[in-house]
Protein backbone atom coordinates (compact mmCIF):
# COMPACT_ATOMS: atom_id res chain seq x y z
CA UNK A 1 0.00 0.00 0.00
CA UNK A 2 1.40 3.39 -0.96
CA UNK A 3 2.05 6.00 1.71
CA UNK A 4 -0.02 9.16 1.59
CA UNK A 5 1.69 12.50 0.99
CA UNK A 6 1.24 13.34 4.66
CA UNK A 7 2.84 10.09 5.83
CA UNK A 8 5.86 10.81 3.68
CA UNK A 9 6.13 14.34 4.97
CA UNK A 10 5.64 14.07 8.72
CA UNK A 11 6.82 12.03 11.67
CA UNK A 12 8.51 9.11 9.92
CA UNK A 13 11.97 9.38 11.43
CA UNK A 14 13.55 6.94 13.87
CA UNK A 15 12.32 5.68 16.34
CA UNK A 16 8.84 5.52 14.79
CA UNK A 17 10.13 3.49 11.85
CA UNK A 18 9.45 0.02 13.27
CA UNK A 19 7.92 -1.92 16.17
CA UNK A 20 9.62 -0.94 19.41
CA UNK A 21 9.04 -1.10 23.14
CA UNK A 22 10.18 1.09 25.99
CA UNK A 23 10.00 1.68 29.71
CA UNK A 24 8.48 4.67 31.47
CA UNK A 25 10.67 5.84 34.35
CA UNK A 26 11.43 9.36 35.50
CA UNK A 27 15.11 9.88 36.47
CA UNK A 28 14.09 10.99 39.98
CA UNK A 29 12.81 7.42 40.52
CA UNK A 30 16.25 5.89 39.95
CA UNK A 31 17.98 4.30 42.96
CA UNK A 32 21.05 5.83 44.53
CA UNK A 33 22.43 7.57 47.61
CA UNK A 34 20.85 10.99 46.96
CA UNK A 35 17.43 12.26 48.05
CA UNK A 36 16.16 11.51 44.54
CA UNK A 37 17.50 9.73 41.49
CA UNK A 38 20.17 11.63 39.52
CA UNK A 39 22.03 11.43 36.22
CA UNK A 40 24.75 9.21 37.60
CA UNK A 41 25.82 5.57 37.52
CA UNK A 42 22.31 4.25 38.16
CA UNK A 43 21.08 5.97 35.00
CA UNK A 44 23.78 4.21 32.98
CA UNK A 45 22.97 0.91 34.67
CA UNK A 46 19.30 1.38 33.78
CA UNK A 47 20.21 1.93 30.13
CA UNK A 48 22.25 -1.29 30.24
CA UNK A 49 19.20 -3.13 31.59
CA UNK A 50 17.04 -1.72 28.79
CA UNK A 51 19.50 -3.02 26.22
CA UNK A 52 19.77 -6.43 27.89
CA UNK A 53 15.99 -6.87 28.00
CA UNK A 54 15.33 -5.76 24.41
CA UNK A 55 13.79 -2.35 25.08
CA UNK A 56 14.88 0.46 22.76
CA UNK A 57 13.07 3.46 24.28
CA UNK A 58 13.39 5.19 27.66
CA UNK A 59 10.46 7.50 28.35
CA UNK A 60 10.75 10.15 31.05
CA UNK A 61 8.56 12.93 32.42
CA UNK A 62 9.57 16.59 31.85
CA UNK A 63 13.08 17.28 33.18
CA UNK A 64 12.72 20.94 34.19
CA UNK A 65 13.28 22.57 37.59
CA UNK A 66 10.16 22.20 39.71
CA UNK A 67 8.33 24.27 42.27
CA UNK A 68 8.00 23.09 45.87
CA UNK A 69 5.31 20.53 44.98
CA UNK A 70 7.82 18.63 42.85
CA UNK A 71 5.55 18.42 39.82
CA UNK A 72 7.56 18.21 36.59
CA UNK A 73 4.53 19.63 34.81
CA UNK A 74 4.83 22.99 36.62
CA UNK A 75 8.38 23.99 35.80
CA UNK A 76 10.32 27.21 36.30
CA UNK A 77 11.40 26.98 32.66
CA UNK A 78 10.45 25.12 29.48
CA UNK A 79 14.15 24.90 28.57
CA UNK A 80 16.12 24.41 31.79
CA UNK A 81 16.96 21.12 33.47
CA UNK A 82 16.40 20.41 37.16
CA UNK A 83 19.50 20.98 39.33
CA UNK A 84 18.15 18.17 41.55
CA UNK A 85 19.11 15.73 38.80
CA UNK A 86 22.79 16.73 38.76
CA UNK A 87 25.08 13.91 39.91
CA UNK A 88 27.48 15.31 42.52
CA UNK A 89 29.90 12.39 42.10
CA UNK A 90 30.42 13.61 38.52
CA UNK A 91 31.74 16.87 40.01
CA UNK A 92 34.08 15.01 42.36
CA UNK A 93 35.46 13.03 39.41
CA UNK A 94 36.40 16.34 37.76
CA UNK A 95 37.91 17.84 40.92
CA UNK A 96 35.24 20.55 41.05
CA UNK A 97 33.98 19.12 44.34
CA UNK A 98 36.03 17.42 47.04
CA UNK A 99 35.26 13.89 48.14
CA UNK A 100 34.90 15.13 51.72
CA UNK A 101 32.34 17.69 50.56
CA UNK A 102 30.28 14.86 49.10
CA UNK A 103 30.55 12.91 52.33
CA UNK A 104 29.38 16.00 54.24
CA UNK A 105 26.37 16.07 51.89
CA UNK A 106 25.55 12.44 52.67
CA UNK A 107 25.89 13.24 56.38
CA UNK A 108 23.42 16.14 55.95
CA UNK A 109 26.11 18.67 56.89
CA UNK A 110 25.95 20.28 53.44
CA UNK A 111 22.91 20.55 51.21
CA UNK A 112 22.85 20.17 47.43
CA UNK A 113 22.84 23.91 46.73
CA UNK A 114 25.91 24.44 48.92
CA UNK A 115 27.75 21.62 47.13
CA UNK A 116 26.92 23.09 43.74
CA UNK A 117 28.07 26.53 44.89
CA UNK A 118 31.37 25.09 46.09
CA UNK A 119 31.82 23.33 42.75
CA UNK A 120 31.05 26.57 40.93
CA UNK A 121 33.66 28.46 42.94
CA UNK A 122 36.35 25.93 42.02
CA UNK A 123 35.22 25.74 38.41
CA UNK A 124 35.13 29.53 38.03
CA UNK A 125 38.54 29.91 39.62
CA UNK A 126 39.94 27.32 37.22
CA UNK A 127 38.36 29.00 34.18
CA UNK A 128 39.58 32.44 35.28
CA UNK A 129 43.14 31.19 35.63
CA UNK A 130 42.94 29.05 32.47
CA UNK A 131 40.65 30.92 30.12
CA UNK A 132 41.77 28.84 27.12
CA UNK A 133 41.17 25.50 28.85
CA UNK A 134 38.67 23.07 27.36
CA UNK A 135 36.34 23.60 30.34
CA UNK A 136 36.36 27.38 29.98
CA UNK A 137 35.78 27.22 26.24
CA UNK A 138 33.01 24.63 26.58
CA UNK A 139 31.21 26.67 29.25
CA UNK A 140 31.39 29.86 27.21
CA UNK A 141 30.14 28.04 24.13
CA UNK A 142 27.18 26.68 26.10
CA UNK A 143 26.26 30.16 27.34
CA UNK A 144 26.38 31.57 23.83
CA UNK A 145 24.46 28.74 22.16
CA UNK A 146 21.71 28.68 24.78
CA UNK A 147 21.52 32.47 25.25
CA UNK A 148 18.06 32.60 23.65
CA UNK A 149 16.64 31.27 26.94
CA UNK A 150 19.52 30.94 29.40
CA UNK A 151 20.05 34.64 30.00
CA UNK A 152 16.45 35.26 31.05
CA UNK A 153 16.31 32.05 33.08
CA UNK A 154 19.48 32.76 35.06
CA UNK A 155 18.35 36.31 35.80
CA UNK A 156 14.88 35.06 36.80
CA UNK A 157 16.36 32.52 39.25
CA UNK A 158 18.66 35.17 40.69
CA UNK A 159 15.86 37.69 41.22
CA UNK A 160 13.57 35.00 42.61
CA UNK A 161 16.14 34.18 45.27
CA UNK A 162 16.77 37.87 45.95
CA UNK A 163 13.04 38.29 46.64
CA UNK A 164 12.66 35.34 49.03
CA UNK A 165 11.50 32.91 46.30
CA UNK A 166 8.35 34.93 45.67
CA UNK A 167 6.63 34.66 42.31
CA UNK A 168 7.69 37.31 39.81
CA UNK A 169 4.19 38.76 40.08
CA UNK A 170 5.14 39.92 43.62
CA UNK A 171 8.51 41.46 42.76
CA UNK A 172 9.08 45.23 42.76
CA UNK A 173 7.51 46.81 39.69
CA UNK A 174 10.77 47.71 37.97
CA UNK A 175 12.07 44.14 37.71
CA UNK A 176 8.60 42.60 37.57
CA UNK A 177 7.84 44.66 34.46
CA UNK A 178 11.35 44.19 33.04
CA UNK A 179 12.37 47.83 33.06
CA UNK A 180 15.53 47.93 30.94
CA UNK A 181 17.54 50.05 33.37
CA UNK A 182 16.51 47.87 36.31
CA UNK A 183 17.46 44.68 34.49
CA UNK A 184 20.79 46.12 33.37
CA UNK A 185 21.56 47.13 36.93
CA UNK A 186 20.58 43.69 38.23
CA UNK A 187 22.86 42.00 35.70
CA UNK A 188 25.79 44.06 37.00
CA UNK A 189 24.92 43.70 40.67
CA UNK A 190 24.29 39.94 40.51
CA UNK A 191 26.82 38.98 37.86
CA UNK A 192 28.24 36.03 39.79
CA UNK A 193 24.84 34.72 40.90
CA UNK A 194 23.66 34.78 37.29
CA UNK A 195 26.81 32.96 36.19
CA UNK A 196 26.19 30.34 38.86
CA UNK A 197 22.72 29.53 37.49
CA UNK A 198 24.23 29.26 34.02
CA UNK A 199 26.80 26.87 35.48
CA UNK A 200 24.02 24.72 36.97
CA UNK A 201 22.47 24.40 33.53
CA UNK A 202 25.86 23.65 31.99
CA UNK A 203 26.19 20.75 34.42
CA UNK A 204 22.71 19.42 33.73
CA UNK A 205 23.04 19.59 29.95
CA UNK A 206 26.55 18.10 30.04
CA UNK A 207 25.38 15.15 32.12
CA UNK A 208 22.13 14.56 30.23
CA UNK A 209 23.71 14.78 26.78
CA UNK A 210 26.43 12.35 27.85
CA UNK A 211 23.71 9.95 28.97
CA UNK A 212 21.86 10.48 25.70
CA UNK A 213 24.98 9.65 23.71
CA UNK A 214 25.52 6.51 25.82
CA UNK A 215 21.92 5.44 25.30
CA UNK A 216 21.91 6.15 21.56
CA UNK A 217 25.14 4.18 21.12
CA UNK A 218 23.36 1.20 22.69
CA UNK A 219 20.34 1.60 20.42
CA UNK A 220 18.19 3.28 23.08
CA UNK A 221 16.13 6.33 22.14
CA UNK A 222 15.13 8.95 24.71
CA UNK A 223 11.44 9.84 24.79
CA UNK A 224 10.63 13.22 26.37
CA UNK A 225 7.43 14.81 27.61
CA UNK A 226 6.42 18.37 26.79
CA UNK A 227 3.59 19.95 28.84
CA UNK A 228 1.50 22.07 26.51
CA UNK A 229 1.12 24.78 29.18
CA UNK A 230 3.71 26.49 31.37
CA UNK A 231 3.65 27.62 34.99
CA UNK A 232 2.67 31.23 35.64
CA UNK A 233 5.64 31.57 37.97
CA UNK A 234 8.26 30.77 35.36
CA UNK A 235 11.02 32.52 33.48
CA UNK A 236 9.02 32.04 30.29
CA UNK A 237 5.91 33.94 31.37
CA UNK A 238 7.98 36.66 33.07
CA UNK A 239 10.08 37.17 29.94
CA UNK A 240 7.25 36.82 27.38
CA UNK A 241 4.15 38.31 28.99
CA UNK A 242 2.58 39.31 25.67
CA UNK A 243 2.31 35.64 24.70
CA UNK A 244 -0.07 34.90 27.61
CA UNK A 245 -3.55 36.01 28.63
CA UNK A 246 -2.58 38.26 31.52
CA UNK A 247 -3.98 41.53 32.80
CA UNK A 248 -1.92 44.71 33.06
CA UNK A 249 -0.57 43.65 36.45
CA UNK A 250 0.55 40.28 35.11
CA UNK A 251 -2.18 38.17 36.70
CA UNK A 252 -3.90 35.42 34.72
CA UNK A 253 -7.28 36.31 33.31
CA UNK A 254 -8.18 32.68 32.65
CA UNK A 255 -6.42 29.47 33.65
CA UNK A 256 -5.97 26.07 32.04
CA UNK A 257 -7.43 22.72 32.94
CA UNK A 258 -9.85 20.10 31.69
CA UNK A 259 -13.56 19.57 32.39
CA UNK A 260 -14.80 16.57 34.41
CA UNK A 261 -13.40 13.31 33.03
CA UNK A 262 -12.14 9.85 33.97
CA UNK A 263 -9.67 11.26 36.49
CA UNK A 264 -11.88 13.77 38.32
CA UNK A 265 -15.61 14.45 38.73
CA UNK A 266 -14.95 18.20 39.03
CA UNK A 267 -12.34 18.33 36.29
CA UNK A 268 -8.78 19.45 36.77
CA UNK A 269 -7.93 23.10 37.41
CA UNK A 270 -4.22 23.23 36.59
CA UNK A 271 -3.95 26.99 37.01
CA UNK A 272 -1.56 27.63 34.12
CA UNK A 273 -2.03 30.82 32.10
CA UNK A 274 -3.48 30.45 28.62
CA UNK A 275 -1.69 31.47 25.46
CA UNK A 276 -2.41 34.68 23.62
CA UNK A 277 -2.39 32.78 20.35
CA UNK A 278 -2.85 35.74 18.02
CA UNK A 279 0.31 37.37 19.38
CA UNK A 280 2.24 34.10 19.18
CA UNK A 281 1.09 33.53 15.62
CA UNK A 282 2.07 37.07 14.64
CA UNK A 283 5.61 36.31 15.85
CA UNK A 284 5.84 33.36 13.50
CA UNK A 285 5.51 31.00 16.50
CA UNK A 286 9.08 31.92 17.44
CA UNK A 287 8.67 31.03 21.12
CA UNK A 288 7.38 27.56 20.27
CA UNK A 289 10.09 27.00 17.69
CA UNK A 290 12.73 27.87 20.29
CA UNK A 291 11.02 25.58 22.80
CA UNK A 292 11.16 22.65 20.40
CA UNK A 293 14.81 23.41 19.65
CA UNK A 294 15.68 22.45 23.22
CA UNK A 295 13.52 19.31 23.08
CA UNK A 296 15.27 18.28 19.86
CA UNK A 297 18.59 18.59 21.66
CA UNK A 298 17.52 16.56 24.69
CA UNK A 299 15.35 13.84 23.16
CA UNK A 300 14.85 11.63 20.13
CA UNK A 301 11.07 11.87 20.25
CA UNK A 302 8.67 13.94 22.34
CA UNK A 303 5.16 13.46 23.68
CA UNK A 304 2.93 16.54 23.54
CA UNK A 305 1.06 16.42 26.84
CA UNK A 306 -2.60 17.48 26.41
CA UNK A 307 -2.33 17.55 22.62
CA UNK A 308 -6.00 18.42 22.33
CA UNK A 309 -5.03 21.91 23.49
CA UNK A 310 -3.53 22.47 20.05
CA UNK A 311 -7.08 22.29 18.66
CA UNK A 312 -8.97 23.93 21.55
CA UNK A 313 -8.26 24.61 25.22
CA UNK A 314 -10.53 24.61 28.26
CA UNK A 315 -10.41 28.15 29.67
CA UNK A 316 -11.54 28.54 33.28
CA UNK A 317 -12.29 31.96 34.81
CA UNK A 318 -9.52 32.63 37.30
CA UNK A 319 -11.99 33.10 40.16
CA UNK A 320 -13.41 29.56 39.77
CA UNK A 321 -12.17 27.02 42.32
CA UNK A 322 -12.81 23.98 40.10
CA UNK A 323 -12.64 23.26 36.38
CA UNK A 324 -16.37 22.62 36.01
CA UNK A 325 -17.24 26.07 34.65
CA UNK A 326 -15.20 26.90 31.60
CA UNK A 327 -15.32 27.00 27.83
CA UNK A 328 -13.44 25.55 24.87
CA UNK A 329 -11.45 28.17 22.95
CA UNK A 330 -9.89 27.39 19.57
CA UNK A 331 -6.12 27.19 19.05
CA UNK A 332 -4.14 27.54 15.79
CA UNK A 333 -2.76 24.00 16.00
CA UNK A 334 -2.51 23.39 12.25
CA UNK A 335 -0.49 26.55 11.70
CA UNK A 336 1.69 25.87 14.75
CA UNK A 337 2.54 22.30 13.77
CA UNK A 338 3.23 23.38 10.20
CA UNK A 339 5.68 25.98 11.49
CA UNK A 340 7.37 23.43 13.76
CA UNK A 341 7.84 20.91 10.97
CA UNK A 342 9.14 23.59 8.65
CA UNK A 343 11.74 24.45 11.29
CA UNK A 344 12.51 20.81 12.17
CA UNK A 345 11.66 18.41 9.31
CA UNK A 346 12.89 15.41 11.34
CA UNK A 347 10.79 16.28 14.39
CA UNK A 348 9.22 13.16 15.95
CA UNK A 349 6.12 13.80 18.05
CA UNK A 350 3.52 11.71 19.88
CA UNK A 351 0.12 13.14 20.75
CA UNK A 352 -1.29 12.58 24.24
CA UNK A 353 -4.92 12.41 23.11
CA UNK A 354 -6.63 11.20 26.27
CA UNK A 355 -9.76 12.73 27.79
CA UNK A 356 -12.43 14.53 25.78
CA UNK A 357 -11.34 14.07 22.18
CA UNK A 358 -13.37 15.42 19.27
CA UNK A 359 -13.26 14.63 15.57
CA UNK A 360 -11.41 17.92 15.07
CA UNK A 361 -8.64 16.81 17.45
CA UNK A 362 -8.31 13.48 15.66
CA UNK A 363 -8.20 15.24 12.30
CA UNK A 364 -5.38 17.49 13.48
CA UNK A 365 -3.39 14.57 14.85
CA UNK A 366 -3.93 12.52 11.69
CA UNK A 367 -3.03 15.42 9.41
CA UNK A 368 0.47 15.37 10.89
CA UNK A 369 0.61 11.59 11.22
CA UNK A 370 1.11 11.74 14.99
CA UNK A 371 0.61 8.53 16.98
CA UNK A 372 -2.07 8.79 19.64
CA UNK A 373 -2.11 6.94 22.94
CA UNK A 374 -3.91 3.77 24.05
CA UNK A 375 -4.18 2.97 27.77
CA UNK A 376 -5.03 -0.60 28.71
CA UNK A 377 -6.43 0.43 32.10
CA UNK A 378 -9.08 2.48 30.26
CA UNK A 379 -10.19 -0.44 28.08
CA UNK A 380 -12.62 -2.39 30.21
CA UNK A 381 -15.82 -0.37 30.30
CA UNK A 382 -17.85 -3.26 28.92
CA UNK A 383 -18.31 -2.06 25.34
CA UNK A 384 -16.62 -3.97 22.51
CA UNK A 385 -16.13 -0.64 20.73
CA UNK A 386 -13.93 0.81 23.49
CA UNK A 387 -10.94 2.25 21.55
CA UNK A 388 -8.48 1.12 24.24
CA UNK A 389 -9.34 -2.57 23.88
CA UNK A 390 -6.49 -4.41 22.11
CA UNK A 391 -8.65 -5.47 19.16
CA UNK A 392 -9.36 -1.77 18.42
CA UNK A 393 -5.76 -0.55 18.52
CA UNK A 394 -4.17 1.17 15.54
CA UNK A 395 -0.63 0.77 14.21
CA UNK A 396 0.07 4.50 14.44
CA UNK A 397 -0.26 4.66 18.21
CA UNK A 398 1.65 4.21 21.46
CA UNK A 399 0.12 1.72 23.87
CA UNK A 400 0.63 1.67 27.65
CA UNK A 401 -0.62 -0.52 30.47
CA UNK A 402 -0.87 2.78 32.38
CA UNK A 403 0.94 6.10 32.57
CA UNK A 404 2.44 8.13 35.42
CA UNK A 405 -1.11 9.38 36.13
CA UNK A 406 -2.44 5.84 36.62
CA UNK A 407 -2.00 3.53 39.55
CA UNK A 408 0.25 0.53 39.03
CA UNK A 409 -1.59 -2.22 37.19
CA UNK A 410 -1.43 -4.56 40.19
CA UNK A 411 -2.91 -1.93 42.51
CA UNK A 412 -5.48 -0.90 39.89
CA UNK A 413 -6.60 -4.49 39.47
CA UNK A 414 -6.91 -4.91 43.24
CA UNK A 415 -9.22 -1.90 43.42
CA UNK A 416 -11.72 -2.96 40.77
CA UNK A 417 -15.24 -4.03 41.65
CA UNK A 418 -16.47 -7.53 40.81
CA UNK A 419 -18.21 -6.38 37.64
CA UNK A 420 -15.03 -4.88 36.22
CA UNK A 421 -13.01 -7.91 37.25
CA UNK A 422 -15.49 -10.13 35.43
CA UNK A 423 -15.13 -8.08 32.23
CA UNK A 424 -11.34 -8.42 32.30
CA UNK A 425 -11.45 -12.16 33.09
CA UNK A 426 -13.89 -12.69 30.24
CA UNK A 427 -11.85 -10.69 27.76
CA UNK A 428 -8.54 -12.44 28.40
CA UNK A 429 -9.83 -15.79 29.70
CA UNK A 430 -7.10 -15.85 32.34
CA UNK A 431 -7.14 -16.24 36.13
CA UNK A 432 -7.36 -12.90 37.86
CA UNK A 433 -4.05 -13.21 39.73
CA UNK A 434 -2.17 -13.48 36.41
CA UNK A 435 -3.65 -10.37 34.84
CA UNK A 436 -0.76 -7.97 35.41
CA UNK A 437 1.44 -10.17 33.21
CA UNK A 438 -1.44 -10.67 30.78
CA UNK A 439 -2.01 -6.92 30.43
CA UNK A 440 1.72 -6.38 29.84
CA UNK A 441 1.77 -9.18 27.26
CA UNK A 442 -1.27 -7.79 25.45
CA UNK A 443 0.28 -4.33 25.50
CA UNK A 444 3.43 -5.72 23.91
CA UNK A 445 1.41 -7.83 21.43
CA UNK A 446 -0.62 -4.83 20.26
CA UNK A 447 -0.34 -3.72 16.63
CA UNK A 448 0.72 -0.30 17.99
CA UNK A 449 4.16 0.58 16.69
CA UNK A 450 5.40 1.56 20.15
CA UNK A 451 4.57 -0.15 23.46
CA UNK A 452 5.56 1.44 26.79
CA UNK A 453 5.51 -0.32 30.16
CA UNK A 454 5.92 1.57 33.45
CA UNK A 455 8.78 0.01 35.39
CA UNK A 456 6.38 -0.57 38.30
CA UNK A 457 4.39 -3.01 36.17
CA UNK A 458 7.48 -4.85 34.99
CA UNK A 459 8.44 -5.31 38.65
CA UNK A 460 4.88 -6.39 39.57
CA UNK A 461 4.52 -3.65 42.19
CA UNK A 462 1.23 -2.92 43.91
CA UNK A 463 -0.17 -0.27 46.23
CA UNK A 464 2.25 2.48 47.27
CA UNK A 465 4.23 2.64 44.03
CA UNK A 466 2.11 5.15 42.15
CA UNK A 467 3.90 8.20 40.72
CA UNK A 468 1.01 10.68 40.60
CA UNK A 469 -2.67 10.94 41.46
CA UNK A 470 -4.25 13.69 39.30
CA UNK A 471 -6.20 16.31 41.22
CA UNK A 472 -4.16 15.86 44.41
CA UNK A 473 -1.34 18.04 45.68
CA UNK A 474 0.34 15.82 48.27
CA UNK A 475 2.43 12.68 48.09
CA UNK A 476 3.17 12.73 44.38
CA UNK A 477 6.38 12.46 42.33
CA UNK A 478 8.29 10.71 45.12
CA UNK A 479 8.33 7.05 44.11
CA UNK A 480 11.72 5.33 43.69
CA UNK A 481 12.69 1.75 43.02
CA UNK A 482 15.54 -0.39 44.29
CA UNK A 483 17.61 -2.71 42.17
CA UNK A 484 16.58 -5.74 44.21
CA UNK A 485 12.98 -5.14 43.06
CA UNK A 486 14.07 -5.59 39.45
CA UNK A 487 14.52 -9.34 39.71
CA UNK A 488 16.10 -11.68 37.18
CA UNK A 489 12.65 -13.18 36.57
CA UNK A 490 11.22 -9.73 35.77
CA UNK A 491 14.05 -9.01 33.34
CA UNK A 492 13.74 -12.44 31.71
CA UNK A 493 10.00 -11.94 31.25
CA UNK A 494 10.56 -8.51 29.71
CA UNK A 495 13.13 -9.86 27.25
CA UNK A 496 10.86 -12.77 26.38
CA UNK A 497 8.00 -10.40 25.54
CA UNK A 498 10.22 -8.18 23.40
CA UNK A 499 11.40 -11.18 21.38
CA UNK A 500 8.01 -12.90 21.23
CA UNK A 501 6.20 -9.81 19.95
CA UNK A 502 8.87 -8.59 17.55
CA UNK A 503 9.92 -5.45 19.38
CA UNK A 504 13.68 -6.01 19.60
CA UNK A 505 16.25 -4.55 17.25
What is the secondary structure topology, with strand pairs?
Blueprint (H helix, E strand, L loop, with lengths): L4 H5 L10 E5 L16 H13 L3 E3 L28 H6 L5 H8 L5 H18 L4 H12 L1 H16 L10 H4 L3 H10 L1 H27 L3 E7 L7 H5 L14 E5 L9 E6 L3 H6 L3 H13 L2 E5 L6 E6 L9 E4 L2 H11 L5 E3 L7 H9 L4 E4 L21 E4 L8 H6 L3 H11 L6 H11 L4 E5 H4 L29 H13 L5
Describe the structure.
With 505 residues, the chain is α/β, with parallel strands linked by helices. It has a single domain, classed as TIM Barrel (Alpha-Beta Barrel). It contains 20 helices and twelve strands. It has helices at 5-9, 41-53, 88-93, 99-106, 112-129, 134-145, 147-162, 173-176, 180-189, 191-217, 235-239, 277-282, 286-298, 333-343, 359-367, 409-414, 418-428, 435-445, 455-458, 488-500, and strands at 20-24, 57-59, 221-227, 254-258, 268-273, 301-305, 312-317, 327-330, 349-351, 372-375, 397-400, 450-454. The strands form two sheets. The protein has an eight-stranded parallel beta sheet with strand order 9-6-3-2-1-12-11-10. Strands 5-4-7-8 form a four-stranded antiparallel beta sheet, with no helix packed on it. Helix 2 links the parallel strand 1 and strand 2. Helix 6 packs across helix 7 and helix 7 crosses helix 10 (191-217). The protein is globular and about 70 Å long. The two termini are 24 Å apart. The relative contact order is 0.13. Residues 1-8 have low confidence and may be disordered.
